[in-house]
Amino acid sequence: QVQLVESGGGLVQAGGSLRISCAASRSIFSFNAMGWYRQAPGKQRELVATITTGGTTNYADSVKGRFTISRDDAKNTVYLQMNSLKPEDTAVYYCNARRTLDMLFHDYWGQGTQVTVSS
Question: What pLDDT does 1 receive?
């Protein structure tokens, strides 16, 4: 088990920047990957970015070149730096920790943090 607590969300104007954080209650090194997902009203939750233990990153096409995911294993924290924000980035952003065990994914989620981008 792990507790994930997101922070740093808020209201920002289009074109602005925001950094959100995810603090884990235990070592994130024990998870195969950490990630950020988002869910806008009336839409399904979608992947934003992931980062593996080895530092390999993956981004949704819609955020490539604008968002950067990073991790600080010493602080058990994952970050998402969001630049050039657009109104369509408005959503609740969820932190995810994934462990692969016996060919099954075990996912843990935070409670989410709201990001609102005004036009």
Answer: 86
